[in-house]
Write a structure and sequence with these properties.
Elements (H helix, E strand, L loop, with lengths): L38 H66 L6 H7 L3 H81 L27 E2 L17 E4 L5 E3 L4 E7 L6 E6 L5 E10 L6 E2 L4 E5 L10 E6 L7 E2 L1 H7 L5
Antiparallel strand pairs: 1-2, 2-9, 3-8, 4-5, 4-7, 5-6, 6-8, 6-9, 9-10
Helix pairs in contact: 1-3
Length: 352
């Protein structure tokens, strides 16, 4: 199956991750393995809403393109109306000139007066033919003017209708967007509230069993999230940490699926301490990856995971100042042996 290349975003300045120098005490997962204690429902609901949001976004984009086309159609009608108004003004000017010319050549004289003033029958006939042509020109000009005015009236109605359709479309798009935001905020709040309770208790509720994505990655290593913004990097300084930042932060919303960057085995699932809810995976070659500040975990300790498998959902548990994923690469399962995650992934063909 075709692998999906993650989208890279610009580096953002916000430093979200909090102190990570203290090791979180191990806490075994408790509760039903299927997440039937309630955490699974919220986590699955967030993922479902993300999928619904993706589908709604497609509808939104399709509607936006339709609205853009409707706007262009209305603008074309407005330009047409301007031309028609100018044409009518020209026709009215022509009518005035024809009427004035006809008056100057005697077009307003009665037929009897024309007979008396004519010097010969030939002159009278020539005058009559000229008057006939003038009358025909007037009739044609009047007909064209009336036809243009009727067309203008119809096109003005079409233009007004086009702008009304556009306004309704924009209202519908705004409603779709508000609905997506409202549902996601509610579900994310529920999920984070349950995660905070677990972190405070120092015990995980049990893994959230989510339907994994229908894709197989052909490359052995991938980023831990699909769509992201990079925030605090490895070695960053600041008052948020007792020393230097020990990982790479990914700015993502609460409930975003977090993926194993490569094949391995879960060696730690913890829900207390500065990292909040976290998962640690051991990979071939003796390296470990950590996924911290989660809102939910989706794996058990000891479980084998494949590249791209969801191991949790992002959140803001533990010492965190906002929703994000804290990602580390270590030589040991415990903190203090971290290496630069960006360089480590780049050596394996993954550039963030």
């Amino acid at each position: 199956m075709r692998s999906r290349r993650p989208r890279r975003h610009l580096l953002v300045a916000a430093l979200l991750c909090a102190p990570a120098v203290l090791a979180a005490g191990p806490a075994t997962a408790t509760g039903d393995a299927d997440g039937s204690d309630g955490s699974g429902g919220a986590g699955a609901e967030v993922v479902r809403l993300y999928e619904e949001a993706a589908a709604a976004t497609q509808r939104y984009e399709a509607g936006r393109r339709q609205a853009d086309e409707q706007r262009r159609r209305a603008q074309r009608l407005e330009r047409l109306l301007d031309r028609e108004r100018r044409d009518i003004a020209v026709l009215h000017g022509d009518l005035g000139r024809i009427a004035r010319a006809q008056y100057r050549t005697g077009g307003g004289l009665p037929h009897t007066a024309q007979l008396l003033l004519a010097d010969s029958p030939e002159e009278l006939m020539r005058g009559r033919r000229a008057l006939w042509r003038a009358d025909l020109a007037v009739d044609n000009a009047v007909t064209k003017s009336r036809r243009a005015e009727r067309r203008l009236t119809a096109d003005e109605s079409r233009a007004a209708s086009a702008w009304q359709v556009l306004e309704r479309r924009n209202d519908e798009l705004a409603g779709i967007k508000r609905g997506i935001e409202r549902k996601l905020e509610e579900a994310q709040g529920t999920l984070q509230g349950q995660a905070d309770a677990s972190a405070a208790a120092g015990a995980c509720r049990g893994p959230v069993r989510l339907d994994q994505p229908d894709e197989a990655f052909t490359q052995p290593w991938i980023p831990p999230v699909e769509t992201y913004g990079l925030s605090a990097g490895f070695g960053s300084g600041g008052e948020r940490w007792a020393s230097r930042h020990t990982g790479q932060d990914f700015a993502v919303d609460i409930g975003t699926p977090v993926r194993a960057v490569g094949r391995g085995r879960v060696v730690k699932v913890s829900c207390g301490g500065p990292f909040g809810m976290e998962v640690v995976v051991r990979h071939a070659g003796g390296y470990y990856t950590q996924y911290a500040h989660l809102a939910a975990v989706t794996v058990d300790q000891g479980e084998r995971v494949s590249t791209g498998q969801w191991v949790g959902q992002s959140g803001t548990t533990g010492n965190s100042t906002g929703p994000h994923l804290h990602f580390e690469v270590r030589l040991t399962p415990q903190p203090g042996s971290g290496v630069d995650p960006r360089e480590w992934l780049a050596e394996r063909g993954v550039r963030l």
